[in-house]
Write a structure and sequence with these properties.
mainly beta; Tachylectin-2, Chain A; globular; disordered C terminus; binds beta-D-mannopyranose
């Protein structure tokens, strides 16, 4: 992956009264981009704020947090809100976030057409849950959401699950997707994992960027990985990173309110070239931007079934080891339905300025 050479792309004080602006989601919108940003205030109140940008780099973040309309009063009452994701689905932008409900974290769901008026739906799940990420289209007629059941604290455990809904209100048919990996096989993701970006549709499967956490003597370290999920049955894991794809190395990732955290919440993809731009929170303080390609991520992943076979000591690999033979076919990357709505302009901008011109600048990990 390549970090944007002017990172952090959004500084901690880029909104009025902000202490930090970090785990945030960005989508192409109109002639530019829009986003929903996690801003913790100087009183350390956690909330989500809309923002707009012409180029995906320079942002104007609203002074007022998102105000939702339309929800049942019991759900509309704000508690705390953090870690938003934004998913363009059918005709509108859905927002999911970690929504405090009577002090307990669950997944809030809302939508907007214009990032000015927002409507709230029912919370998707019972507490305790975090990292709710929608798929960008229905699959076999239903909506799908990844999530990470958790506890009320800093959760020293956690696997990724999938839930299905006919209407974005009632969720069921819960499926286990993938879990942590203990031991030598991939210890950076040994404590908990959580979905990051809205999955990118490719002809090989859904490409998911996620975070993985290890517990150290000095606290949690958050890194970034990716997985490939089956197109029709997305609880089946085809491939997965053994090595992390981005870890906290730069100063702004290692030092901040919570050190050693990279936390992806959005990935923009250019269907024509497979280029991907990832927005991620850094040290719970600022927002970073990094680039990669779908082909590169495909190379970075290993066959989940083979990894299970190579590491029988890690039982959780067996649980996620649904090896699909058709992955052996040599297929060129071709995001099936993302079109121009997935960040083409942003990525093109970087081809000239920060990417193609600096082939040696790859930061690797
Ligand atoms: C998680 C969430 C994230 C945060 C991370 C690291 O539990 O609270 O918002 O980035 O911890 O502190």
């Amino acid at each position: 992956m390549w970090r944007y050479d002017a990172n952090p792309v959004i500084g901690r004080f880029a909104a009025k009264n902000a202490n930090s602006i970090f785990n945030s989601a960005v989508v192409p919108f109109g002639d530019g981009f829009a986003g929903v940003f996690r801003c913790d205030s100087k009183s350390i109140s956690m909330d989500i704020f809309p923002g707009f940008s012409r180029d995906g780099i320079h942002w104007e973040i609203s002074e007022e947090p998102v105000r939702f309309e339309g929800a049942h009063p019991e759900v509309a009452k704000r508690d705390y809100r953090y870690d938003p994701r934004v998913c363009f689905l059918e005709d509108r932008y859905y927002i999911t976030w970690c929504n405090g409900y009577h002090g307990y974290p669950t997944i809030g769901v809302g939508y907007t057409f214009d990032f000015r008026t927002f409507y709230q739906l029912e919370n998707a799940f019972l507490p305790f849950n975090r990292n709710g990420v929608l798929f960008p289209r229905r699959i076999n007629g239903n909506y799908y959401m990844l999530s990470r059941p958790s506890d009320n604290g800093h959760t020293p455990f956690g696997d990724i699950f999938l839930s299905e809904s006919p209407d974005l209100k009632y969720w069921g048919c819960h499926r286990y997707v993938m879990g942590t990996v203990k031991g030598d096989a991939s210890a950076w993701q040994s404590t908990k994992i959580g979905a990051g970006s809205v999955p990118i549709e490719t002809d090989r499967g859904w490409l998911l960027i996620y975070h993985g956490v290890i517990q150290t003597c000095n606290g949690f370290v958050y890194r970034m990985g990716c997985a490939l999920l089956d197109l029709e049955e997305p609880w089946k894991v085809i491939k997965r990173s053994r090595n992390y794809i981005l870890g906290p190395h730069e100063l702004y990732e290692c030092v901040g309110d919570v050190p050693n955290v990279v936390f992806p919440c959005a990935a923009l993809a250019d269907a024509a070239t497979g280029r991907i731009a990832i927005y991620y929170g850094c040290a719970d303080t600022v927002t970073g931007l990094a680039f990669t390609t779908a082909d590169r991520l495909m190379e970075d992943m290993e066959d989940a079934g083979k990894m299970a076979a190579d590491h029988p000591e890690s039982a959780l690999w067996e649980l996620c080891g649904h090896s699909l033979d058709r992955m052996d076919a040599k297929m060129p990357f071709d995001a099936a339905s993302s079109g121009d709505c997935c960040g083409k302009r942003l990525v093109e901008h970087y081809i000239g300025h920060h990417w193609g011109g600096k082939p040696g600048a790859e930061s690797g990990r």
